[in-house]
Structures are given as C-alpha cells and as structure tokens.
Design a protein that fits this description.
- The structure is a single chain.
- This protein is mainly α.
- Helix content is 81%, strand content 0%.
- The protein contains 5 helices and no strands.
- It is elongated, with a radius of gyration of 21 Å.
C-alpha cells in the first residue's frame, strides 16, 4: 500500500473518530447547547470551503506552471510521455488538474519537473 493511500485511510479514520465524538457530545447536550454546537460546526464548514477555494486556485497555478516548464523545454505531452515511459494521458491529467490521485506515472512527471528546477 502506498504512503498516500495509508495517509488517506488514517485521515478517514481520524475524521470518523471526530464525527463519532461530536455525535456523542451532541446527543448528551441540552437543546440550547446543541444550537451553539451547530453554529460552531457551520462556521467550521464555511472556513473549510474558503480553504478549499484557495487550494483550488493554488492547484491551478501549479498545473499551469507545470505546462509552462514542459513547453519551455520544447516538448509536447506526447514527446515527454515517451521520454518518461508513461502514458500521455497522465501528463494531460496533471496539467489540467484532473489527476485525482498521484500514481506512478504522475509521480514520474513530477520528478521530471523537479529535475527542471520546479518545486512542488
């Protein structure tokens, strides 16, 4: 199992543990305290949405920069894919932000970018 998969599973377990604690706490509270807890959770969700929007913008910049580096090297996606021994689709997914997971192919592409001086 890859590191990122283990990290994802650990994250999911942690979130589930927190949710269980919140649920148990919520059930034990008087009604007026439940309203306070719910308002706090709503605020937390709003902050999370704002952070997600910032992360989305950052990802777009990273993806754009990756494409610029490849183009500066004078390579098409197909040429770079052949050089790295990966499928051109992996490069395309990374550059467009469609790569949901960072598999081996995308990892090779990121390693190539780092060799060219790009910092993740």
């Amino acid at each position: 199992m890859e590191y990122r998969e283990r990290l994802s599973q650990a994250h999911e377990q942690l979130v589930n543990s927190y949710l269980k604690q919140i649920r148990e706490t919520y059930l034990s509270l008087p009604m007026e305290d439940k309203a306070i807890l719910l308002r706090g959770l709503e605020n937390l969700l709003e902050e999370t949405e704002e952070t997600s929007q910032i992360n989305s913008e950052t990802r777009k910049k990273v993806n754009r920069r990756a494409r610029q580096i490849r183009e500066k090297e004078g390579l098409t996606q197909k040429e770079l894919a052949k050089e790295l021994g990966i499928n051109q689709c992996a490069i395309s997914r990374y550059e467009t932000g469609d790569a949901k997971k960072r598999g081996k192919a995308v990892g090779k592409y990121v390693d190539w970018l780092k060799q060219k001086g790009y910092k993740e």
